[in-house]
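Chapter review. Work through the record for Sensor histidine kinase YesM before attempting the end-of-chapter questions.
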Amino acid sequence: MNLRNKLFTAFLGLIIIPLLVLGLFTFFVTYNSIEKKYSQQAEYSLKAISYSILNVFDEMEKVTDTGIVSSVFTTALKADDPASQDFITNAEQLNLNASQRNFRNMLYNHPAISYAFLYNMNKRSSHVPIFTKEDFGAMPFIDFQKSHFYEEVVKLNGVPKWIAPHEYPELTGKESVFTQIRLVKNMETFRKEGILVVQIKRLEFERIFRNLTLPNNLQDTSFLLVNDEGLILFDPKEHSDGQNMNAFMDRGIDYGSEYQSFKSKFDGEESVISIHKLEGYPWSLVSVTNWASLSQEVTAFAKWFIVILGLCLVTAVAFNKFFMNRITGTIAIIVRFMRRVEDGDLSARVEEKGEDELLLLSRGFNDLMDRINRLFDQIRDEQRLKTEAHMRVLQAQIKPHFLFNTLESINVLAVQNEGRKVSEMVCRLASILRISIQDREEITLEEEIKHLKSYLEIQKFRFEDVFDYEIDIPKELLSCRIMKLTLQPLVENSIQHGFEGIDYTGMLVIKAWSERGNLIVHVEDNGLGMTSQQLSLFEYMVPEEKESPQSGEGDLKLNQERRGLGLRSVADRIRIQYGDVYGLFICSSQPGGTVIHCVIPNYGGGEGQHA
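C-alpha cells for Sensor histidine kinase YesM:
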C-alpha cells in the first residue's frame, strides 16, 4: 500500500469511522433514553388524567348519594305514576314535588348528566323517569333483571356500578355516555326500593383531554379508554370508538398491570404505547404516541449527523486529493527518481518547486545526487588510473615471459649456426615488439591475427615438428576491435603445456564468430588437457593462496604458477576493460585437449558465421 492510501486509511480509520461509531452509539442511546423518559412522562400524564376522570365519577356519586339520603328517589318510587299522585295527601304531594324539584335543580347544575331514571323493584311501574331524553327508551325492568348487571348491582348493595360506552348498548343506548347504576334503599327501613340509572355525557371527559397541556413532541398523542377485553370505550378524537385494540396492534396486551409502556406497531405505524390501570375500575387509560413525532429531534440530529459526516468524507477526499496528494505526489516523484538512480541513471533530478519542506526534500535529493555524481567521477578517474596501472603491470608480466622464451630459442639457433632461422625469428620478434610498444590498447582483429601468426612461426622454429596450426577468421570480422596481446597467451598455454611430452603432432585451431553482439574467438588444441585441479586455478577472483596449492615439490608449484600466469592475465585484462560478463571460458579434459573461448563485445565488423 502506498503512502497516499495509508494516509487516507489512517484518516478514515482514526477520524471518520470513530466519529461514525460515536454518532451511532449516541443515536441509539438517545433513542433508548427518549423511550424511557417518555414512559415516565406518559405515566405522570396518565395518572393526572385518571385522577380527573375519577373526580368526575366521584362527583357524580356524591350527587346521587344526596338524592338517596334526601329520600327523593324512595318518595318517587311510592307512586305508580309520578305525574298523578291521587293516593297520597296534598301535603305529601307538596313535599314530594319540592324534593323532586330540588333534586332536578341539583341535576341542572351538572350539565354533563344526559339522562336519569329509576327502576321500581316493587313492580308498581316499569321505571320512573327523572330526566327525559328524546329517541331513547329505557330497557324494560324485566329484561334488565335477566342481565348480569342486575345481580352485580344488587350484590354491590348501593355502591355505584359504572358502565362505559359500547359495553352494554342495550341498556345505555347507542349514544356514547357513561352510565352509573346503583341500588336505592329506604333510609329508614334499609329496604331495597329501586335501581337508579344516571347517564353522563362524554362532554365532561372531552373537556378533560381538551384542557390537557402537552409538550410539542406529544401533540400527536392519542388517549383511549379501554376495558380489560381491549374494547375501546372512549376516544376523544372519535376515531376508534367501539373497536378493539387488537385490530390496531400486532401483539396482545395484558391489562392487569398497574402501568406498562412499550414500543409496538399501532395502526401500521411505529408507536410508543403506555397503559395505566384505573384504580377500582375494570378500565385502563391508554396513550398512543407516534414514534416518528416523538423522535423527530433525534431523527433531525441523525440527519444532520449524516450530512456532517458526508461533509467530513468530502473534506477528507478533497484534503487527500489536493493537500495530501501534493505531499505524497512529491514523495512519489522522488521515489520514482530514486528508482531511476537504482537503475543507473545518475542524471535524474527532481523539479524544485514550492516554499515548504517539500522544496527542502527535493533540493536535498538533488544535492545528494550532485555529490554522488562528483564522487562517481572521482572514483571513475581513480579507477581508470588504477586500471591503467594494473594493465601495464599485467603486460609487463607477459612481455618478459615471452621475450625470455624467444631469446632463449634464438640463442639456441645461433649456437647451432642457423643464421637464416635466426634472421626470420628476429624479424618475427621485431613485428611482435612493434605491436606491443604501440600506445593503442585496442587493435583490429586483423592486426592481432598478424601478431599471432608471427608468434606461432617463432614457436614453430623453437618446437619443430611438435605442432601445427590452422587459422580461419571470416573477413567481415577482421575489422572488429580487440585488446592487443589477447590471443598470444592462449596459444602459448597450449604450446607450452598442452603439447609437452606428446608423441604425436599437436594441432592448434583458431576460429572466430559473432553471436548476440559479442565476438567469440575459439582456440582449440589436441594436447594433454588439464585436470579439474588445474582448471580451478583459472577461476575468476580466486585468492592468491588458493592459486598455488601446497605441495612439497617446488618444480610442480613453479610450473603451476607459470601455467596460470598468461591466462589469468588475459582474463583479468578483459574483465577490467569490458566488465565481469566477459572473459575466458575454458573446457578441458585428460586426454582430450583444451578449448578456450575468448568472449568480448563486438565493437565493429559484421555478423560473421561460425567458422
